[in-house]
Sequence to fold (299 residues):
Amino acid sequence: MNQKTLFLGKILKKLQKTLKMSTQNAATKQKSGSGAKKQKSGNGATIFAYLVIPVALIVCEIIFHKVFGNVSHFTDATRSKAANGDYFGIVYKGGFIVPLLMTLFLLVFTFSIERFFALAKSSGKKSNDAFVRMIQKMLGEGKISEAIAECNKQGGSLANVVQAGLHKYQVMLTEENMDKEQKILAIQKELEETTALELPGLEKNLVVISTISNIGTLVALLGTVIGMIKSFAALGESNDSGALAEGISEALINTAVGIATSAIAIIMYNLFTTRIDKLTYAIEEAGFSIVQTFAANNK
Fold:
């Protein structure tokens, strides 16, 4: 049991290390893009990630041994054979890789929910397309203060970037020591810095889902190979083809769970990255409108 626990711990530590490296890279990007500005706090999401991974492993280990490994699912107290048609017992016979795969599945489910609510909050109250069109209309009419007020109502990453750009827009209107090109560059820089602060928060914890989509199938295949080795070893000792078939069936449990986990992780990762791409495009479009409006209205 100690060797099994050590193996599971190593896998989870690698996952946490990957998450830590991603967090550090995001922080570096924030620092490089924010200048003297204070970084937005993302500690909540990071702490959430560090807590969820070990808790998920513990929960899945308990479920695996106490629920799936309950003696009622087997023909005898030694758990040597699952009861006929009892899938709980069959899953338990899949081996010690199964709780790790269950942990990966639970992590995908948990982080998908977390990202869903985080991105929903970052998207603001109204449709981003409608918000961008409204801002463009207000800019065309010269209603800068009203546009800033709408940003406060909208909330979210897009509104934060637009609001920062509009504040800089107002400052540049009264700036007398800079020429037009310098003012435009100042607005662009403000937009870029604010965007650099917002984007890492949108991508937080996606590295966990991405990692699971890559390693889920590999871990499953490892469990399957281990199960196949045990099955053929047992065949060599007893020459029982029925036992071999049963052992192969149990080994393939790992493959099924791993493929399902990776497939769900890939789908969720693509869904979230698509939403982030749309939000990023809306930010770029709004920023372009602010810069172009200033260039057109100020000679």
DSSP finds ten helices and no strands in the chain. Confidence is low (pLDDT under 50) at residues 25-41. Residues 2-124+201-289 form one domain. The CA atoms of residues 227 and 251 lie 5 Å apart.
